[in-house]
Write a structure and sequence with these properties.
0% strand, binds fe (ii) ion, 5 helices, Four Helix Bundle (Hemerythrin (Met), subunit A)
Amino acid sequence: MGHLVWKPGFEIGIEVVDCQHKLLFAYLNEGMENIADSAGIFDNLKTYASVHFADEVKLMRKSNYPAIEGHVKQHQLFEEQVEHLQSAVMDGESKTIMMLFSFLKDWFLEHILVEDSKFAGYLRATMDKDDITVLTEFDS
Ligand SMILES: [Fe+2]
């Protein structure tokens, strides 16, 4: 799997979320260059996911996003899958780290570009730009 290049078309149009999605790309590329440091890759990824998912869910709650439940379920499955892959890596399955990158790439294509975009479309359709800005000012 080669170096991933961010494209403007990947943006869902909610700045704070797009910045976090770009960060996932950076982790992926960084991780692929330092495959030996699998502990560091998983640490970064898990910290990233907990902050990013919590922020997304806060936005969904504050905007009464009707599809929140299914979306949160996908986040949980992501976290379970990362845990599962981490255990496999610790058990010495050397190919597993490549499975992680392939899983993250699929996640990006299927969750971020589809599900997160739906949520962003919902925000833009139901709120004006200033209200979205206020909504994305997280207190924590
Ligand atoms: Fe999401």
